[in-house]
C-alpha cells in the first residue's frame, strides 16, 4: 500500500513538473519574448521591402572583392533543405587544435588569400580574426581593425571613397555592452548590405 502511494506521488509529481516546465513555462517565456523582444525572438532577421537577407547574428560567407570579408568559416559535412526547397550549407567550428599541422595550413592558406586580395598592404600584419575561425564557426562580426584592413580594396572595387567606406563601417560598429563588456565589433552582413545600397 505504501509503495503504491509512493509511485502515485512520483507519477503525479512527474506529470505536474512536465506540464509546468515543458508547457506552461515555455508558453509564458515565448509569449514574453514575443511581446517585449519580437525582433530578437524571431532570429534578428534583416528584412528590407519584404526580402529577408539573413540574421544579423549568423555569419554569411563573402569572398568577392566587392564585399567585406568576415571570419574564416569551415563548411559542415553536409547540407539540409530549407522550407523553400533550397539546399543550405551550414557551418560550424573546425575543432582543430592550434598546435596541429591542419590548423597551420588553414591559417597559411587564408593569409595567402588575404594578401593576394590586398596587395597594397604589403607585409602589414593581418588582423588575426581575418585568418582564424571563431569558436562557433559562424561569428557575424569582425574587429574594427579587420574592417579597416579592407577599406582600400572595397573603395577600389565599389567606386566609393575610403571615407564613405569608413562611414559605413562606423554605422555598423557595435560598441561594448554597457561600455565595458566585450570589444567593439563590426557586423559584416550589415556593412555589405549598405555597400549594396540595400540598407
From TrEMBL:
<keyword id="KW-1003">Cell membrane</keyword>
<dbReference type="GO" id="GO:0016787">
    <property type="term" value="F:hydrolase activity"/>
</dbReference>
<keyword id="KW-0630">Potassium</keyword>
<dbReference type="Pfam" id="PF02669">
    <property type="entry name" value="KdpC"/>
</dbReference>
<keyword id="KW-0472">Membrane</keyword>
<keyword id="KW-0067">ATP-binding</keyword>
<keyword id="KW-0378">Hydrolase</keyword>
<comment type="function">
    <text>Part of the high-affinity ATP-driven potassium transport (or Kdp) system, which catalyzes the hydrolysis of ATP coupled with the electrogenic transport of potassium into the cytoplasm. This subunit acts as a catalytic chaperone that increases the ATP-binding affinity of the ATP-hydrolyzing subunit KdpB by the formation of a transient KdpB/KdpC/ATP ternary complex.</text>
</comment>
<keyword id="KW-0813">Transport</keyword>
<keyword id="KW-1133">Transmembrane helix</keyword>
<protein>
    <recommendedName>
        <fullName>Potassium-transporting ATPase KdpC subunit</fullName>
    </recommendedName>
</protein>
<keyword id="KW-0547">Nucleotide-binding</keyword>
<keyword id="KW-0406">Ion transport</keyword>
<keyword id="KW-0633">Potassium transport</keyword>
<dbReference type="GO" id="GO:0005886">
    <property type="term" value="C:plasma membrane"/>
</dbReference>
<keyword id="KW-0812">Transmembrane</keyword>
<dbReference type="GO" id="GO:0008556">
    <property type="term" value="F:P-type potassium transmembrane transporter activity"/>
</dbReference>
<comment type="subunit">
    <text>The system is composed of three essential subunits: KdpA, KdpB and KdpC.</text>
</comment>
<dbReference type="InterPro" id="IPR003820">
    <property type="entry name" value="KdpC"/>
</dbReference>
<comment type="similarity">
    <text>Belongs to the KdpC family.</text>
</comment>
<dbReference type="GO" id="GO:0005524">
    <property type="term" value="F:ATP binding"/>
</dbReference>
Amino acid at each position: 500500500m505504501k509503495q503504491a502511494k509512493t509511485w502515485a506521488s512520483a507519477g503525479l509529481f512527474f506529470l505536474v513538473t512536465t506540464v509546468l516546465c515543458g508547457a506552461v513555462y515555455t508558453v509564458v517565456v515565448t509569449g514574453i519574448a514575443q511581446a517585449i523582444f519580437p525582433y530578437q525572438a524571431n532570429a534578428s532577421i534583416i528584412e528590407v521591402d519584404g526580402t529577408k537577407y539573413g540574421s544579423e547574428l549568423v555569419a554569411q560567407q563573402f569572398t568577392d572583392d566587392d564585399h567585406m570579408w568576415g571570419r574564416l568559416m569551415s563548411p559542415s559535412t553536409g547540407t539540409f533543405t530549407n522550407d523553400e526547397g533550397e539546399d543550405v550549407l551550414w557551418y560550424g567550428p573546425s575543432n582543430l587544435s592550434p598546435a596541429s599541422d591542419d590548423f597551420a595550413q588553414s591559417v597559411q592558406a587564408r593569409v595567402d588569400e588575404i594578401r593576394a586580395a590586398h596587395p597594397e598592404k604589403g607585409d602589414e600584419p593581418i588582423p588575426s580574426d581575418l585568418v582564424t575561425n571563431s569558436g562557433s564557426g559562424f561569428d557575424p562580426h569582425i574587429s574594427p581593425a579587420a574592417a579597416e584592413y579592407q577599406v582600400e580594396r572595397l573603395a577600389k572595387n565599389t567606386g566609393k571613397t575610403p571615407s564613405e567606406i569608413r562611414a559605413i563601417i562606423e554605422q555598423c560598429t557595435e560598441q561594448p555592452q554597457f561600455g565595458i563588456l566585450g570589444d567593439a565589433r563590426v557586423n559584416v552582413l550589415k556593412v555589405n548590405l549598405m555597400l549594396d545600397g540595400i540598407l
